[in-house]
Design brief:
Rossmann fold, 672 residues, 9-stranded parallel beta sheet, 11-stranded mixed beta sheet, 22% strand, alpha/beta, Immunoglobulin-like
């Protein structure tokens, strides 16, 4: 875990911890709990994020003494504290005093007290109570050297549809559009006689509505949560040292708001990683780790993950023996500088009684404890090796929440899902073990930022910013290889169709335009000189713009008559680079072969590994590399090593062959 201010640099310590709720247990038990934490090799405990009623049992009366003692007892055992602002759990006395704090759902019903995040994020009464509590917490615990970080709230997820949110939304629109004439024009409100003559007429879209209205409401929800979060951050900053960081625990691919916007005010991003039913698919979880790293373009924390099982899935099976250790190292391979389990001990009551823990309700260690202990020992031994290292990526992908929202509202095919399509590309790239960075559209502010990537893939970028094309063009001219796909460049920032044919302002870059798009009721054959497969769900009819630099590399076969023998995939040569346009939604095998071609043309060499084995590289500031090999299967796998390396976990030199036992891990460095 690195400090946000280099002038206050401390020695690096990999965070390995758990969520702990001392308020649930008699104080005489704390000593035993914390002793067991130290035995498990834990270095951090997160506390307080749901403890509002214990910290402030009535308005203005604060009870921090119990948390003081917990922090000090943890510190005495070598465990640092991360404190959460408990604003996700407004207490009963506050709701009784101010009932309008409770959110209104999309059916115009008031949310019931007793769960989490049941508040209206724009409630002024709630803001007042939050500021009072956070100020008191920050003033009291801010100077405490044993508190190393703060988490704001917990898993933002509620959308409120109350009258006050509607009024704020209307003010937000007035500030952003300036006039109703502009808004009406951008939203095409003449359609179905939607024209507005006063701001107060504009509704909150509880269900399907005007695409422009829906997109602006998503932006407003993002704006509201960012303002609520920043309100707390600004208070904390007045009291905490520069070396103490602030985060929020995101929920992976949750799309209720734009996480990039919320992350701007944080020091580090964190996320809550749960498998649910079944077992971890490392290719898909790798995408979410890379996504979370992209929020701040630096390493992150897995601030919650399951110890064994969850309690909310269809089948709450436990992870296999060894799987959680492999998952922990998998997170590290993708840039995690900390992993915390949720939670330490099973509560007697409440909604999560059956959730996996490290210690059961009797206070005894669960079987999972030994695996955590082993993992903690490993992290402690090589923490210094990981210090300052970040994942090495030679490929980038661009993820765009707004394009995802827009496609989600108007799929045109019930099976077209932006995230599934994005992961279709991610998996085909990740199988090559070359490392992937995920970028947001707004993070691409210059072509120089793209130059470190040999290949950039942009799936279904429906909404293309005006300045984006010039950055991509410069990247390609300098030798970059760019992959554009179907459903790209169809809309503007107001969620309106562009007057030009798809891909809009990217057409000249791609060398093609889309004559028609087709939602497919059956697969369409696709033939290329290196593969033969099919397009499923979606296909686009491409028209070359006439430049000799554009070539067809695959065509559709006999299908609906319109697509027969027409271009499906093209490549355009610009400067030293190439631009691919893939109008087909290829089957998995054909997709893999298409990506093989892209990677080969970019002079990248995939890192070979047996099926189910992941190989990732973290690189230190001095250029030294740490290779992490993980067997995600229940079978022994053997890797070939091109040069002698040293396995830091096994503490031995490895020759030409490396054997990985089921869920085995090797952390390798070159021999000097």
């Amino acid at each position: 875990m690195r400090d946000r201010d280099s002038s206050n640099k401390k020695s690096f310590l990999f965070l390995f911890g758990t969520a702990y709720y001392p308020e649930h247990w008699p104080e005489e038990r704390w000593k035993e709990d914390i002793y067991l934490m130290s035995q498990a090799g834990l270095t951090a405990a997160r506390m307080g994020e749901f403890a509002w009623s214990s910290l402030e049992p009535e308005a203005g009366r604060f009870c921090f003494d119990w948390l003081d003692r917990a922090v000090e007892l943890l510190a005495a055992n070598g465990i640092s504290s991360i404190l959460g602002t408990p604003t996700a759990a407004p207490p009963a006395w506050l709701v009784q005093t101010y009932p309008r704090i409770l959110a209104i759902d999309e059916n115009n019903r008031q949310v019931q007290f007793g769960n989490r995040c049941h508040y209206c994020v724009n409630s002024p009464e709630f803001h007042e109570a939050v500021c009072r509590l956070v100020e008191a917490l920050a003033e009291h615990f801010g100077p405490n050297p044993n508190v190393i970080g703060w988490q704001i709230d917990n898993e933002f997820n509620r959308v409120c549809y109350c009258d006050r949110c509607r009024e704020q939304f209307q003010r937000y629109l007035a500030e952003n559009f300036g006039s109703l004439d502009v808004l009406n024009e951008k939203w095409s409100t003449r359609y179905w006689s939607q024209t507005y003559s006063a701001w107060v007429q504009i509704p909150i879209p509880a269900r399907s509505h005007n695409p422009g209205l829906m997109l602006e409401f998503k932006r407003f929800v993002t704006h509201s949560y960012r303002a609520f979060q920043k309100m707390q951050i600004d208070i904390l900053r007045r009291y905490i040292p520069p070396a103490v960081w602030i985060t929020h625990n995101f929920m992976g691919w949750y799309d209720g708001y734009d996480p990039y916007q919320l992350s701007e005010d944080l020091d580090i991003a964190a996320w809550d990683w749960y498998v649910g039913s079944g077992h971890n698919d490392y290719l898909l979880s790798g995408a979410v780790h890379d996504l979370t790293r992209s929020f701040k373009q630096k390493n992150f924390i897995v601030i919650e993950t399951q110890p064994g099982c969850v309690n909310w899935a269809g089948v709450n099976n436990s992870l296999n023996k060894g799987e959680a250790r492999a998952m922990a190292w998998h997170a590290v391979a993708h840039g995690a500088d900390g992993i915390l389990y949720w939670q330490w001990r099973s509560a007697y009551g409440g909604q999560e009684q059956y959730h996996g823990t490290l210690v059961d309700q009797s206070g005894q260690m669960r079987p999972f404890f030994d695996e955590v202990q082993r993992t903690g020992q490993e992290f402690r031994e090589i923490s210094n090796v990981l210090e300052g290292s970040v994942p090495k990526a030679r490929i980038a992908m661009v993820y765009d929440p707004e394009s995802r929202w827009s496609i989600g509202w108007q799929r045109h095919h019930q099976d077209f899902d932006y995230l599934k399509f994005f992961n279709h590309y991610y998996v085909s790239l990740a199988e090559n073990n070359l490392g992937i960075d995920i970028l947001s559209v707004n993070s691409v502010v210059s072509s120089s930022l793209l130059s470190k990537y040999k290949v950039i893939v942009i799936p279904a970028l429906l909404i293309v910013p005006e300045e984006f094309e010039s950055h991509l063009r410069d990247y390609v001219k300098r030798g970059g290889h760019l992959v554009l796909t179907l459903r790209t460049g169809m809309k503007d920032r107001y969620n309106a169709l562009l007057p030009a044919r798809q891909p809009g302002r990217l057409a000249k870059l791609a060398g093609v335009e889309v004559e028609e798009y087709y939602a497919l009721d059956m697969p369409v054959p696709v033939r290329g000189n290196r593969f033969e497969g099919s397009s499923e769900v979606w296909a686009e009819l491409l028209k070359l713009l006439g430049d000799s630099s554009t070539q067809i590399i695959a065509c559709y076969g006999k299908s609906n008559g319109w697509l027969d023998d027409q271009p499906a995939i093209t490549v355009n040569s610009i400067g030293k680079g190439l631009v691919y346009f893939n109008g087909a939604y290829l089957d998995s095998v054909s997709q893999g072969r298409f990506i093989e071609r892209v990677i080969k043309n970019a002079n990248l060499k995939p890192i070979a590994a047996p099926a189910g084995v992941e190989i990732a590289v973290r690189v230190k500031p001095d250029g030294k590399e740490i290779t992490i090999a993980i067997n995600h299967t229940q079978e022994t796998k053997v890797l070939s090593c091109s040069r002698p390396v040293f396995d830091l976990l096994a503490k031995k030199q490895v020759g030409e062959k490396l054997e990985l036992t089921p869920y085995g891990i090797a952390v390798l460095t070159r021999l000097e």
